[in-house]
């Protein structure tokens, strides 16, 4: 098969479409013929040499995919050759084929195109595990999402609105904020022109945000804690703004607030399986019912992955950028 390889870390040009050995499913695994994958920030970090795959994972980038079951390993039940699926991966999505633990497979939701289903697994699992399983967002509470027009952000808006929460977002342009509003966001903050701490205080009458989903890390840490409501929960899922910040423990104590930081890729199989099962139970009906949808900016041929990485690094996209294996599309 062919896959996107990284012979040496570097810029987008470091991604090379090359012939590699076919993967073989082991016990409890399924082989998927990939139709599409999606670009995530973690893929960019891996390409740059800063985020190696966990032990035993595929060396190729790609944390999610959609496609068709091509083979089933021993001990697997409930999946058959030809099933249309999407999958959460520890790596390997930028390829014509990938091996997936059966517990990380999901059926393509009703009403979703097979290619566009590749935009779902990573963002849905990230949002559901952090905003709902860890931060326990409840109806009537306020969620602040940084990067509201990203793949994570567009999904977080929709899921929070579906459970009856109020949603605030930050984004860097009117076009991006308009998209967030179309998806249901109530409070729109242009981080280039406005201070989100002041805007959240004004919009909530001084109460603050009950839950914050943050992709920035150190740069926003102090301001996020100041923005939290009493009993607020900050979920950190990225470090685009750096890795070391100062945490005001007094403010955290006064608010009886909590800070959690998680990554999805390196979690053990049992935890990923539990997250995927929760997503199938709680989120898939919302997607099939048309209340939640994948947001896709554009589709780019898999072998042109360097161009896709440039698009994501420039941050001009809204939603997900997909990589499509065109000859596997039927």
Distance between the termini: 18 Å
Mean model confidence by pLDDT: 97
- Unreliable runs, pLDDT <50, ≥5 residues? none
Main beta-sheet annotation: 7 strands, mixed
- Beta strand count: 15
User: Cα-atom Rg, whole angstroms?
Assistant: 19 Å
Strand content: 25-35%
Give a verbal description of the structure.
This protein is 29% helix and 26% strand. The protein is built from ten helices and 15 strands. Strands 3, 4, 5, 6, 7, 14 and 15 form a seven-stranded mixed β-sheet that branches. It has a six-stranded parallel β-sheet with strand order 10-9-8-11-12-13, with helices on both faces. It has a two-stranded antiparallel ribbon with strand order 1-2. Helix 5 packs parallel to helix 6 (221-227). The protein starts with a strand and ends in a 6-residue tail after the last strand.
From the structure above, extract its key features.
globular; 10 helices; alpha/beta
Task: Describe the structure concisely for a colleague.
The chain has helices at residues 41-48, 121-134, 151-162, 174-183, 196-203, 221-227, 249-255, 269-282, 284-288, 305-314; strands at 2-5, 16-19, 29-38, 64-72, 84-88, 97-101, 105-107, 142-146, 166-171, 187-190, 209-214, 228-236, 258-261, 296-301, 320-324. It is α/β, with parallel strands linked by helices and 330 residues long.
